Amino acid sequence: MAQPFYSSLVKAYPQSEIHFLSSEALITFDDSSFSQTKKILPKDIKGLGATFFLFAKELEKEKYDLALSLTSSLSSSLLLRAAKIPLRVGFAQGGSG
Predict the structure, then answer these.
(1) 91 Cβ partners below 8 Å, 6+ apart?
(2) What is the pLDDT of residue 61?
(3) I need a labelling partner for 91 at 20 to 30 A (CA). Which of 20, 42, 71, 81 fits?
(4) What is the pLDDT of residue 33?
């Protein structure tokens, strides 16, 4: 599901540095058009423990302008909010949008 989205995003914004976060289980596609840096959400982040907030702080240091969420996961939404990403786009359900 995500592969066409990322491929289109890279083609639409070729000069942008695009990162994406996903569990290791979801990183299964090999797309030659997606050569930008990948950031993979570690598989062991579950719930709102210390690891979650430490990872949010690491994301905050990147000073991202925009986050596009392809999931309606509440934990993903909270992560993007905790990372203080100013513009977050996603599903209305689950708090992503």
Answers:
(1) 69, 71, 72, 97
(2) 93
(3) 42
(4) 47
Q: How many CA atoms lie within 13 A of 13 on its CB side?
A: 8
Contact at 8 Å (CB) between 75 and 96? no
Are 79 and 42 a contacting pair, CB within 8 Å?
no
Q: How far apart are CA 26 and CA 83, in angstroms?
A: 21
Distance in angstroms (rounded) separating the CA atoms of residues 70 and 85: 16
H or E segment to which residue 67 belongs? strand 66-68
Give CA separation, 6 vs 2, 24, 47, 84, in Å: 6, 16, 26, 23
The predicted-structure confidence for 47-69, as pLDDT tens digits, reads as follows: 677 888 888 898 899 899 998 88
Task: Provide the pLDDT for residue 83.
Answer: 92
Q: What is the mean pLDDT of the chain?
A: 75
